[in-house]
Design a protein that fits this description.
Chain lengths: ~500, ~325
């Protein structure tokens, strides 16, 4: 269609133990937005990294208009006109929009910065993007979608041939996404090859011209968006769903251990009410930005709530905080384990015993022997692989770090455990072990709330799943009566209408 | 082949480098003491050692409290003014209350109580404005450094208040246990303070909370640790040590004045950092601070014995502080 074409031939990327990409041959032309979709671990980010020059393929080649590309570094990719816009923003809040766009290469006149030209050039680029952003404005005054657009504009200022957008809408609110899309369409009309990486299928009909699906490192197919149906893409993404292997012996007791009533936090979640039974594993499903994480933090008292009450074993908590909730027998493994769950510079032993500090001490005085016993117990029971227990937590792999966070809470003998994305960024084995831990705890009568982006995980692990959309609980499903495609449909239904 | 045989060597070398970096200050201290003992007459005498202890214990006591604050991820710059404040509060109490006919001992005890109350209030204000209102500890305590200096000036009306204390109060600073050449009381106070802080930091939940809060306040909070309380405890602790130090300082010169304690924060923080405590919080030992205090004391004493003039001493101490921070940054890099 367009006059530019980037294509790959038999690209394969091996990592020790896994094949991240397997014989991928595909092509993207200019003048269209090409969506690249797949669930986590499908290999889409590996492919992006290869295009960006961050890694090299093990086998295979890729070409831009018949010119064979070989990148030693990301700057090689830049020089060939391939620019990647990542989720993490690279902009400086205190500087103006124009300065951010030309950061490090501001136009100069007589060795002084030529401000007039800077703002003029920035203004022209923003005009091309068809957005109304003042180049003089300071970044911190802008909203999230405007940040994303400035990021894209900055990419455009390099006169690229290919722009890769890595989940650009993930941090945006619903109404902001439309503004982003307009900018992406403007970008497409500049004659640039736009590759749009996303896992939000509901966006595809609006923004994508073609959809390419990867699964488990393999190319599943490429379809034209106007010819594809929603459920086709979903089944391409998930394939045939493997059998669930949740142990059947876990008994959910009848008594309610926790009741959440009309919990609200303006802008995040509204009137959330549900009950949690003893020994139950309750999942909360929802797309990114549905308010799942915020809800979990609200229940735990990590963030303030506006309204509502959480009742644990008959005792109501209105203005909860982590100290009170810990006393009530509630534990939380936060979404970002490195920044919120661990003290990376401290030892594995210490990290396993911070939450249970009052239990490893006699009154005010620490009982070192008890602490060592507590730490060793979790290392053994959770099978945490450690060099030695006095080593800093930063030396552990993601999966083992996650186990330390879990162990820290299990040492408090909790009655309720809240898990926020416990499987993010950890390998399949560790993931399975985390689920085993949840089940083992459930057998002991510990109740669990489990939040995850990976819907198939919820189906595998939970007794019951609540569906959350735009900050509200909109439904409840039994994982035995539903398959992944249906669950996915429910989670994103209504997004397009709003 | 070569890589296989080289690996254990590399690991060992790294271990050795880490060990030396971790204990570099002890090594320096021993070398320094040996050098001075051999090269300088009058250094390695009992009298000189007691002298070193007497003149460094005052700042040393505060440095122990400062260790708690810095490990907790904060800083307190105001301690010098607290030293002055403690002195003038007691001096003013002694002078004015005895003028009203009160017993001098009772007047002094009232003064001491007031000073401790002041320490608690100052520490609490620091803690609350830092934690609850989100002000940087650096700024809060920089402000109180000047405000408390002024307050001390107001209390003593701009002049030193001399010769008002009962004898036992003066003995806090001047006294020695075991006769003329005995162990100075400030050194004993330092030893006791050392044991107290060592116990708190190593053997109590408070101490472990301080390490946790300094290491990562958000993780500590989400582990159900009371971050605000922990921070306030640190700020109050260092102020209490500053007040105790202020008593000893005023006792030593038999007066209270707003000008005491000026600039002490630099030496105090130096001792803590030289002792290996990380300015970014979460890492540090009480033992290290004790070594840091001794190190600073021995260097200053050696330079005085060698007749270095005051200005050169300042430069040398600056260079030492610089090197200590350099080593600590390098260590963090090697470990990472």
């Amino acid at each position: 269609m367009g006059d530019l074409l980037i294509r790959t031939e038999h690209i394969t990327k091996d990592y020790p133990g896994t094949r991240a990409l397997d014989d991928i041959s595909l092509s993207f032309d200019s003048g269209r937005v090409h969506a690249l979709v797949g669930k986590n671990g499908s290999g889409k980010s590996t492919l992006v990294k290869i295009f960006a020059g961050a890694i090299q393929p093990t086998l295979g080649e890729f070409y831009l208009n018949d010119e064979k590309l070989h990148f030693e570094s990301t700057s090689d990719a830049y020089n060939k006109g391939i620019v990647t816009v990542y989720q993490e923003m690279s902009l400086v809040p205190g500087l103006s929009v124009a300065e951010n766009i030309f950061l490090g290469r501001l136009p100069k006149k007589n060795n002084a910065i030529d401000w007039r030209k800077t703002y003029q050039m920035a203004g022209k680029l923003l005009e091309k993007m068809k957005v109304d952003i003042n180049p003089h404005e300071k970044m911190y005054r802008l909203s999230m979608w405007q940040w994303q657009v400035v990021e894209i504009t900055k990419a455009l200022s390099f006169n690229p041939k290919v722009i890769l957008l890595d989940e650009p809408s993930s941090a945006l609110a619903q109404h902001e996404v439309q503004s982003l899309f307009e900018a992406v369409r403007a970008l497409r009309d500049q004659g640039v090859i736009v590759i749009y990486i996303t896992h939000k299928l509901q966006e595809l009909p609006q923004i994508a011209d073609t959809v390419t699906v990867l699964r488990d490192g393999k190319w599943v197919g490429t379809v034209r968006m106007d010819e594809a149906e929603h459920k086709d893409i979903i089944s391409m993404m998930f394939g045939s769903v493997k059998a669930k292997d949740r142990p059947k012996d876990i008994q959910v007791r009848d008594d309610v251990i926790m009741e959440v009533k009309e919990l609200s936090r303006a802008g995040w979640y509204e009137d959330v009410s549900f009950e949690l039974h003893r020994g139950e594993v309750l999942g909360i499903a929802g797309m990114l930005g549905s308010g799942r994480t915020e809800l979990l933090r609200g229940i735990f008292g990590a963030d303030p709530v506006d309204r509502g009450v959480v009742t644990v074993e008959g005792k109501p908590y209105r203005k909860a905080d982590p100290i009170k909730m810990k006393k009530a027998g509630v534990g939380l493994t936060p979404e970002n384990r490195q920044k919120e769950g661990l003290i990376l510079i401290h030892s594995i032993r210490d990290n396993l015993c911070y939450a249970s500090m009052n239990l490893t001490s006699d009154l005010w005085v620490e009982n070192k022997r008890k602490r060592i016993a507590f730490a060793n117990k979790q290392v053994e029971e959770l099978e945490i692989k450690i060099p030695k227990i006095a080593a800093p937590c930063s030396s552990l792999s993601g999966g083992n770090q996650q186990k330390v966070v879990v162990g820290n809470w299990l040492n408090t003998s909790p009655k309720i455990m809240l898990y926020d994305e416990p499987s993010r960024g950890i390998d399949v084995n560790a993931k399975q072990q985390i689920f085993e831990i949840m089940w083992a705890q459930a057998r002991k009568g510990v109740s669990t709330i489990f939040v995850s982006t990976e819907l198939e995980e919820l189906l595998e692990v939970c007794h019951r799943i609540l569906i959350m959309r735009h900050g509200r609980i909109v439904g409840e499903v039994n994982p035995d009566d539903i398959n992944i495609n249906e669950l996915y449909e429910i989670c994103m239904r209504g997004d397009e209408a709003e | 082949m070569t890589s296989i045989t080289a690996n254990p060597l590399l690991v060992n070398r790294r271990k050795v480098v880490l060990f030396v970096l971790d204990h570099i200050i002890e090594v320096f201290l021993i070398v320094l003491i040996l050098g001075l003992a051999i090269g300088v007459e009058g250094f390695s005498t009992w009298g000189n050692w007691m002298n070193i202890l007497r003149s460094n214990s005052l700042k040393g006591v505060i440095a122990l409290g400062m260790t708690m604050v810095i490990i907790g991820g904060m800083i307190d710059l105001s301690i010098g003014s607290t030293v002055a404040l403690a002195g003038v509060i007691v001096a003013r109490s002694c002078r004015d209350l005895t003028a009203l006919g009160m017993d001098i001992n009772l007047a002094c005890v009232i003064g001491i109580t007031l000073a401790f109350l002041a320490a608690i209030v100052i520490g609490w204000v620091h803690g609350v404005s830092h934690h609850k209102m989100g002000m940087p500890a650096f700024i809060v305590t920089l402000v109180t450094l000047n405000a408390l200096y002024g307050l001390a000036g107001i209390i003593c009306e701009g002049y030193p208040i001399a010769n008002q204390f009962p004898t036992w109060f003066n003995q806090l600073g001047m006294g020695r246990v075991g006769g003329q050449n005995g162990i100075p009381i400030p050194a004993i106070v330092l030893a006791v303070s050392f044991l107290v802080v060592l116990f708190i930091m190593g053997y109590t939940t408070t101490g472990r909370s301080i390490y946790a809060v300094g290491g990562n306040p958000e993780s500590a909070r989400l582990s159900g640790i009371n971050v605000g309380k922990t921070k306030i405890i640190c700020f109050i602790a260092v102020q209490i040590f500053a007040v105790i130090s202020g008593f000893m300082n005023s006792g030593q010169v038999m007066a209270g004045s707003f000008s005491f304690g000026r600039g002490w924060e630099v030496d105090v923080i130096s001792a803590v950092v030289i002792g290996g405590t990380s300015m970014s919080g979460g890492i540090g030992t009480v033992w290290g601070t004790l070594i840091g205090i001794l190190f600073m004391g021995v260097i200053t004493n050696g330079m005085t014995l060698l007749d270095f003039n005051l200005y050169i001493q300042y430069v040398v101490r600056g260079i030492i502080m610089f090197s200590a921070v350099l080593i600590s940054s390098y260590r963090a890099k090697v470990k990472a």
